[in-house]
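User: For documentation purposes, I need each entry recorded in a consistent format: the amino acid sequence on its own, followed directly by the corresponding structure tokens. There are two entries in this batch. Please keep commentary to a minimum and don't merge the entries.

Assistant: Recorded as requested. Entry 1:
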Amino acid sequence: MGATAMGLIYSPWGKRSGSHMNPAITITYLRLGKIPPWDAFFYIIFQFAGGLIGVILTAWVLGTAFTLPPVNYVATIPGPTGPWAAFAGELIISVIIMAMILYVSNRAAIARFTGLFAGLLIACFVEFEAPYSGFGMNPARTLASALPSGICTGLWIYFTAAPIGMLLAAQGYLAVRGPNSIHCCKLHHHSAGRCIYCGLQGLWEK
């Protein structure tokens, strides 16, 4: 999962779009005023649509190996420690990854490593946090598995913890660094073309 995230972030499509792939990240950048509301709306719509299409295609290709236990559409459910431990785990990892994104992506010397750090964090979360919550951190990813499988256990956790955690990280960053320290909503800003959000080209690769 970490390698997949890195591949998408550094892909031409990821560089073009900003590689959010997560409604909670989009909502956070909307709060920070770095993405227009209309764009944020369509980002979120297509994040949910893309996740659902991905699950449906995987079920079509793999069949029962994907849809039946123990995989169960890779549905995200709380671990044996219960829903509040799952909520706490999801909240903590969401704060950590959003704080990292804001810190790294807004420093020219290390901004190009944002995707690498994101992938490494995701790999760590899968290893150490997944036993508590199943590792959601993305409402679109969770709903994509919940709809076709019908497994909606603790769905509220995955729709609240990630946005709250990332918004908390953003508020903390604003308190320490101020709004002028956030330059763009893209996770990786190296691009041959002009940025559709900040209007600059390859700013963080100079």
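Entry 2:
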Amino acid sequence: MKITTFAAIYIGSYEVSLKIFEICPKRNMRSVDYIRSRLELGKDAYNKGFIGYELVEELCQILKEFHSIMEGYKVDAYKAYAGNVMRVASNALFILDQIRFRTKIEVSVISNSEQRFMGYKSLAASAQFEKMIQKGAVVVDVGGGSMQLTLFRKGTAITTQHIELGIMQIWEKLAKIRNMVSHYEMQIQELIDKELEIFKRIYLQEKDIQYVVVMGDYIGEMVKGFSKKEEDGTIETERFLKLLKKWHRKSPEEISVELNLSNEQDPLILPSVVLYKRLTEEMNAPYIWVPGVNITDGIVCDYAEANHMIRFEHDFEKDILSASRNLAERYHSYSKHTEAVLSMGLVIFDAMKKVHGMGKRERLLLQAAAILHDCGRYISLVNQSECSYQIVMASEIIGMTHLEREIVASIVKHNAMPMQPYKSVNDKMDQESYMIVSKLTAILKIANAMDRSHKQKFKNMKAVLRDRELMITVEAEESIVLEKGLFSAYADSFEEVFCVMPKIKEKRVFQ
């Protein structure tokens, strides 16, 4: 069995890292080298809005060295990504061009959704993680520019919340007052508490969280030396908090020395201690688990899955549907009507396979759109379409990329309004994505029209494609005049997209 040597590069807010892996389908993956270079790009990006020339020079030099290391290992493939620090930098395109020209490394800037999902995949590779989310867990992914919290109950994702507050962001936000107050750590805590209090109040009313799973920098050094439970490798929260509270009262220099950090005056260590302390306290779970994985582990998992080198037992699609359903329920829009539209939409999608050319992933996006199609009504009955779009776009749905969320939001939006021409949305999606939106919207409109009365009149629905007609056979116990009228109104737009005319064939059921 061929062993693939793979390199994962990540450009973060205060560190540039390279991890070399060997991937073998029989033995899974193993790390063979890990190089980290401190580079505080976030100082410029979060303060000035761009990254200065000197830091760009240093970044290119680091990546040149990484390129040489990769050649030494004779890597078969690599992926290089940058996260939030490049997303907020106004000169990111010029920096990426310089990197490409001077180091021969192609760096892609990934969305927050893609970045967090990669990290999530590195967790999902562990059987231990599956056991934890069955019992109730919060996954906390802390970065330099932001953090993300995903709540799991009974093995499925309930919600994902993105918070623009990471270790470097905290440090930069409080830069002006660091030397003006005697208890700087208290200012950090106040900044953090505001965000955590809202999350706790909305999502953690039920006392059923057993584990806090923490991914992030510095946390690995903090938990070294702890005796772990033999059963599953977790740490008792109470013991961990005692240590964090002790560090909470120390200076960054003292903490750095105690943790044996390479930089004995690391300014980010105190924000890290306070952040992890408050996260652990507010989640109020008996155990904490630090799996020791980071974004580079997620990058190799993503690559290996895409190239069919590994297979995950965890059902990521189930997470998407569960998170979508919980989002709909939060806005009081998940109902029997939703289930009816979802069911009928899938019947139509499956019957049209030979015509629409879409696959399993697009079918999943249709399911998410059907679940969320009414969520905007909670805010406005007049501007339902726009409100639905904004709700979906403002919500992180773990497992969906940013583009997929744009597709779902656009389907939901145009379910109740005409499709916009491509030129009006080409800044948000490419032509292929626009066609997916158009096709799935046409299907959703037909399905929605068939239960316009919200009374679920249709039973035993079947759909068959014959030449250029989609014959939809239904059984009904009462009048479907309203549904037929609205169906006809959307049939023309369906035919325009697919060159297929949908028709309803009614079988009356008498009781």
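Summary note for entry 2:
The longest helix spans residues 53-73.
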